[in-house]
Amino acid sequence: SRPTATQCRRSAWPKSRHWRLASHVRREVQPWLVIKNFVSEAERFELLESAMAQKQQGLLLPNPAGPSRYFRRLDATGGVDSLVEALTARLESALDLGSRPRDVTLGRVCSYIEPGGFIHEHRDRYVSETSGLAGLSHLRANVVVQMEKSGQPIIAGKSVPVEEGDAWVFLASKELHATALIE
For 132-158, how does the pLDDT look when each residue is reduced to its tens digit (9 = 90+)? Predict the structure, then answer.
């Protein structure tokens, strides 16, 4: 069994679900968007090595929301490197985010889930009024660095069809989301 590792870009987004996208991005008729092959195999491997090194060094903290889950707020802890910056710019361009403000509450996150872990079904609590982002919702983008099929993401009760190297985007403060138990 392999752990699941993802890199997340979090952003504030209008409460409306009408997303204006770059021409090469296809929106599915679901409450999520999948960008196939968002990262190259070399980038995926570099992200995986980084997540595993951070875990080894004790930089990933246990997530109190569930067992066998670890995370690090990269922006708050000096964990953003040139690859994360480049991927952030690529994602913002693909989604045509323009001058949308970044969510400074959570920022970019490295998440690592080992076998036996899972993400419980929930909506992210997003208090935009206290963050200075009044009227906006929490848009989350995840990059699949490594994933067991048992840990497929679930949004609004439906499995999200993603594979290693893909990215998926959704309004985490609006949609229920989870994973099944990672075997």
Answer: 667 778 889 999 999 998 999 999 999
